[in-house]
Amino acid sequence: MIIKKKIMYGMLATCLAMTLVACQGGTDDNKRTLNVSAASSLMVPLQEAKREFEANHPDVELILNFASSGNLREQITRGAPTDIFLSASVRDVDMIDEEGLVDDRYALYENDLVVVMNASRAFELNDIDDLTTSSFDQIAIGNPITVPAGRYAKQSLKNQGVWADLEDRLLLAGNVRQALTYVETNNVEAAIVYETDALAAESVEIVHEIDRSSFDSIIYPAAVLKRAENQDIVDQFIEWIQQQEGRVLFENAGFQSLND
To answer: Any known ligand binding at 69?
Structure first.
């Protein structure tokens, strides 16, 4: 069986097979990557944006990393691979900008705060003071230290004079999605979350829209990092999510464009 000609043909076939596999696998390897670290509240529009942007740019792979803006900021300062930071907080972008990590920045979209309850027992609130009644033993908000939605909620409750009454009833969540889960599972009576997240949730209802004058404008900025590679793709993506094709994804999710 050990015939030189067969060995030669076998080696040639193996080499050809390896070459074909390398070429087929090289399609993904040759794709240019775009690393986007984004606030958890942007998950719905960005997952759809990934599908559409990649379909229009078959040579690009969009890698999404979701977490609270504060946690993402900490990851970026520790050197995590990030080309674009889409934050739910101007402050977190300011902080990495002060460290000299930002090449350019843009204000993209705006959001609102609402109170939600489980749909099975929801009732409309007349005003924020209703949260101080005995009907609400626990209320979930994002942790104000790391979650922008929690900072906005705390600011609003303080400005409306109910923080002191509610502080001991608050359950602090790691992100807005977790706060919603507490409501969906009836672990709390209510939560203060972004309007966009409430609209995307199936088993909660918005029972009160929080007065916009009680908290700073909830601006979603984009920061292009100095470490970003494939600058042409970065520029194309930033432009795409602000133009009609990408913008409609965010507006359908409840975000308000700042680029009218």
So the answer is: yes
> Boundaries of CATH 3.40.190.10 in the chain?
30-110+218-257, 113-209
DSSP 167-230: GGGEEEESSHHHHHHHHHTTSSSEEEEEHHHHHH-SSEEEEEEPPGGGS--EEEEEEEETT---
pLDDT in tens, 190-246: 999 999 999 999 899 999 999 999 999 999 999 999 999 899 999 999 999 998 889
Model confidence, pTM: 0.79
Q: Annotated binding residue at 115? A: no
Query: Is the model's pLDDT at 28 over the cut of 70?
Result: no
Phi, psi of 117 (to 5 degrees): -135, 165
Can you tell me the distance from the alpha carbon of 178 to that of 181, in angstroms, rounded to the nearest whole number?
5
- In CATH, what is the architecture of 30-110+218-257? 3-Layer(aba) Sandwich (3.40)
User: What is the dotted CATH code of the domain comprising 113-209?
Assistant: 3.40.190.10
Residue 44, annotated ligand binder? no
